[in-house]
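[agent] plan:
  1. take the single chain provided in the ticket
  2. run structure prediction with default settings
  3. attach structure tokens to the ticket
  4. add a short note for the reviewer (M.T.)
[agent] executing step 1
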Amino acid sequence: MEIKPIKTEKDYDKALERLELIFDAAPNSKKGDEAEILSMLIENYENKHFPIESPDPIEAIKIRMEEMNLKQKDLIGVIGGKSRVSEILNRKKRLTVDMIRELERILHISASVLVNNYQLSK
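[agent] step 2 finished; step 3 output follows
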């Protein structure tokens, strides 16, 4: 197959079909190299046409808490006292820089996710 840029959805579909056929090709073989190049072209097309938005910071915190089996009380001392933790998780107050640093350290959530803006509840 001739490798060319993916410009249309039809090109994208063809590239996906071809990649599926040669996906298990041996590395450093002609088909293996083709699969590697196709993967990069497909990823580039997907990043342009199907961007994934960063998650809401509060949702990211809640998801990570669930993954780590943490309760709201486990964040006391990390982002403040009991009422401050409640205010943050219920979107009554915004995260501060110090809170973001601690959450990044404790929950291993990228600061770039935590600094995203989010809607406060009324």
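[agent] step 4 note for reviewer: The chain has a mean pLDDT of 91.
[agent] ticket updated
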